[in-house]
Amino acid sequence: MTVLVASDLDRTLIYSRAAAGVPLSELVCVEESDGVPRSFVTRPAAAGYARLVMAAAVVPVTTRSPDQFARVRLPGPAPAHAVVANGGILLVDGVPDDRWARRVRRRLAGAASLATAHAHLVSACAPSFTRSVRTVADLFTYALVHREALPSDLVPGLDSWAASRGWRVSLQGRKLYLVPQALRKSEAVAEIAARLGARTILAAGDALLDADLLVTADRAIRPAHGELHERGWTAPSVERTVASGARAGEEIVAWFARLCAAEMRAQRSL
Q: Residues 6 or more apart from 203 whose CB is under 8 A from it?
């Protein structure tokens, strides 16, 4: 296929019940954990996504760990390729690609170690506003926080610490991430595009950790909510949804479908 669709998952395509902002009767569950429904899409988004995967190479791109990603069951066949751990792991038919893993390890060699970053995040996150601090796939670390209780100087302070050590900070909902600067979703997507011979990349995402993916895609879209929206982030090739919440996810799926169809028509006319 000549079109590759690369989309972030949480709060871009899929939503918790609280973040969805629409009645439960209008939602389709796409993730369960311990038998409890966790993530949803609207019914039109589910139907549109099922059609989209038949028209383009759709690549889920997420900061989730492989195990967290495995819980998600989007409509249609399972993706042949997926990017997890913020670009640190490239899955091919559900199996981590060893060649990509070796490349990632080489790129991370110049940054402060995960142990150093994790220890700093633990020391910065007081128990009064932190539920836990975790690592993902031996690649990066994040804290589950009570966002309303965060000190105003916490994120700027972490930004300053991270920038000089080859790391970066992202606050997404309840999760405060420290991620190596070399760990980028866009590079894993570019690798998949090269393997597939894709001529056009379309992308979507809502967080700072998606920004590199959005600006390197041929065209991209972000929802009218989330970290990028809160910061007023824009780029020339990046559009914004009208809706927020799960309706934004529905709008993003329709946007992908519309641009895929236009690209295929253009390719046939050549």
A: 5, 6, 7, 61, 189, 210, 213, 214, 216, 217, 219, 220, 221
Average pLDDT, the chain: 96
CB burial class (10 A; 0-12, 13-18, 19+) of residue 266? Answer: exposed
Residues 73 and 38 placed together within one structural domain of the fold: yes
Alpha helices per DSSP H over 109-245: 114-124, 154-163, 185-196, 211-216, 226-230
Q: What is the pLDDT of residue 268?
A: 74
Residue 49 belongs to domain spanning? 3-106+183-269
Are 96 and 187 part of one and the same domain? yes
Specify the pLDDT at position 265: 82
- Each residue's pLDDT tens digit, 149-193: 999 999 999 999 999 999 999 999 899 999 999 999 999 999 999
My answer on whether 168 and 205 are in the same domain is no
Least confident of 74-83, 90-99, 208-217, 257-266: 257-266
Our count of domains for the chain comes to 2
